[in-house]
UniProtKB/TrEMBL annotation:
This is Stage V sporulation protein AE. The keyword Transport does not apply. The chain crosses the membrane at residues 93-112. It comes from Salibacterium salarium. Keywords: Membrane, Transmembrane, Transmembrane helix. The lineage of its organism: Bacteria, Bacillati, Bacillota, Bacilli, Bacillales.
Length: 116
């Protein structure tokens, strides 16, 4: 059942994104930003962690999980270190993913030549 709910919840994220494209005529940048902000807001209200517990990868793989990670890291570090922790907490939690994206992007750019 875990795979089923991950598929359903991940699919719902895709459906919402497609509706944002087709009905509201939003650009991909607006849609991605909307998902990040929605994930941040849901984590701020304490609703994203239960969604992760329920759907697993269906909730952690979409971009909304990035917003969740930013807010979650800021809140945890903010409780321990105050205002400075809010700023550093966001980067501490997400730094490995961002670093991996930069490194793998660089490796891809070195290995492959674009057609043009």
């Amino acid at each position: 059942m875990v795979f089923f709910w991950a598929f359903v919840v991940g699919g719902l994220f895709c459906v919402i994104g497609q509706i944002m494209f087709d009905v509201f005529k939003l650009t991909p940048a607006h849609t991605l930003s909307g998902f990040v902000v929605a994930g941040a807001i849901l984590d701020g209200f304490g609703l994203y962690e239960p969604l992760i517990d329920f759907a697993g990868a269906g909730a952690t793989v979409p971009i909304s999980s990035f917003g969740n990670s930013l807010v979650h890291g800021a809140m945890v570090e903010g409780e321990q270190h105050g205002l400075v922790g809010v700023v550093t907490g966001m980067f501490e939690v997400t730094s490995s993913g961002i670093s991996a994206a930069i490194i793998f992007g660089m490796i891809g750019a070195l290995l492959f030549k674009p057609k043009g």
